[in-house]
Amino acid sequence: MSSAARRRDGSGRRWRMSKRKRQEAILSIIAKHQVATQEELVERLHRAGILTTQATVSRDIAELGLMRVAGPEGHYIKPEDGLGAASTAGREEKLRRLLRDLPLTVRRGQGIAVLTTTPGSASPLASG
Prior knowledge:
Elements: E1 6-8, E2 14-16, H1 19-32, H2 38-47, E3 50-51, H3 54-64, E4 67-68, E5 76-77, H4 88-101, E6 104-109, E7 112-117, H5 122-127
Helix pairs in contact: 1-3
């Protein structure tokens, strides 16, 4: 069996970890912790009993649509973050969270607000 998809339970046995379960674990980890690197995410997965590689985590990050917030303390986020973007309250909360988490400057100019972000941060903000 590939070590990229194994898990150890309390008895020491290993079994195949489904991609869906591994990705659920990734989402759970980034919801609870500010994970700055793929290596840190691999380490947290290992501590949870999920043996995987950085290459597998990299593919999972892309498939899940995770983004890394830029800056010295950057971390991975799920842009829609399960906030129910269909509702106005969900969209407002999502925008508040993004404005809090993403580095940006705001300037006013001729009836509009100009938001300037770091590279890679504009897309999640625009979709907010």
